[in-house]
Design goal:
Layout: E1 10-12, E2 15-17, E3 21-35, E4 38-51, E5 55-60, H1 66-74, E6 81-86, E7 89-90, E8 98-101, H2 113-125, H3 135-153, H4 170-182, E9 188-192, H5 200-217, E10 220-224, H6 228-234, E11 237-241, E12 253-258, H7 266-270, H8 273-287, H9 293-304
Parallel strand pairs: 5-10, 5-11, 8-9, 9-10
Antiparallel strand pairs: 1-2, 3-4, 3-6, 6-7, 11-12
Helix pairs in contact: 2-3, 2-4, 8-9
Length: 309
């Protein structure tokens, strides 16, 4: 069963504010040739609208198409059939409007922490020849200040700015990878299991920092994770995907629902009884036996009472 996400309507000064759609997929299918005339289908009949400023978390078993979905939005891969639009434009190449943070950070080993963060904007601004222009040095000075600010915002110290990747812990390297994406001020931020390789303390710290960064600038986030608590703590909307099955023509999306929001800290929310009940329900949907429809309906009261979570 698919529980459709409710449309969001914001009332501002007594008038309805229309929130624009940032990412739109229509009847998207992805399949690969496996030899002979057979094909393996990864995504089928996927239609989604993601509004600007949403923090969408995607859960599901291995092989259900979560990472493929991110690659489609990024423009690293293309649908076999169907259409995909980001910011009103059809995706036909890797899109600079999308920042991407993979599970395995990809830092340049011969560049310092701050040089890694500055590399993308430097090349986007002027390339190699542009470095000869007088205006480049003023741009680079401001870029360095911005890079330092973002790295400090991500919990790194000024004393670490000149360190190379091999001198950094895994958590520090992942903070740099996130800063690499944020320095470009992307309207869309794609994160693929970005915290999965980190220890619990580092993961919790990065979750809090990412949430604060999102609250400040409100990029549209598409965040893939296997961690149910992480999904419920970070997201404003949850999508549970299931592996493609030819016997299910309705497609890969099993559950699509708005998530409760709270001003409480992550530690406080984790202790909430309602949060634990919602977590148990979502885990059953994503990784266990599917409950009956009346059980799904009974859980709606939990996320509609979002202020208490």
């Amino acid at each position: 069963m698919v529980l459709a996400a409710q449309a969001v309507e914001e009332i501002v000064f007594g008038e309805m504010k229309i929130v624009p759609t940032e990412i739109s997929l229509r009847d998207v299918c992805v399949s690969y040739a496996t030899g002979g005339s057979t094909r393996k289908t990864v995504i089928s009949n996927l239609s989604l609208d993601i509004e600007a400023g949403e923090f969408v978390v995607v859960l599901g078993e291995t092989g259900c198409g979560k990472s493929t979905l991110l690659r489609l939005v990024l423009g690293q891969e293309f649908p076999t059939t169907g259409t995909l639009v980001v910011d009103g434009k059809r995706v036909n190449r890797i899109d600079a409007r999308c920042g991407y943070v993979p599970q395995k950070y990809g830092l340049f080993p011969d560049r310092t922490m701050i040089e890694n963060v500055m590399y993308g904007p430097e090349n986007a601004y002027c390339g190699w020849l542009g470095r000869l222009l007088p205006s480049f040095w003023g741009f680079r000075k401001k870029l360095r200040r911005d890079a330092e600010s973002i790295l400090i915002r991500m919990g790194l110290r000024a004393a670490d700015m000149k360190k190379y990747p091999h001198q950094l812990s895994g958590g520090m390297q992942q903070r740099v990878a996130i800063a690499q994406a944020l320095i470009m001020s992307p309207p869309v931020l794609l994160m693929d299991e970005a915290f999965s390789a980190l220890d619990p303390a580092t993961r919790g710290s990065l979750q809090q920092q990412l949430k604060e960064v999102w609250q400040e600038s409100k990029p549209t986030v598409l965040f893939v994770t296997h961690n149910t608590a992480e999904a419920l703590l970070l997201g404003t909307r949850l999508i549970i995907m299931r592996p493609h099955n030819d016997a299910r023509p309705e497609g890969n999306v099993l559950l699509d629902m708005k998530l409760p929001q709270s001003s409480d800290s992550i530690a406080t929310r984790l202790q909430s009884k309602e949060f634990q009940e919602l977590k148990e329900f979502v885990e059953l949907q994503a990784f266990g036996a599917t409950k009956e429809s009346e059980d799904i309906q009974s859980m709606q009261g939990i996320y509609e009472r979002g202020e208490s979570l």
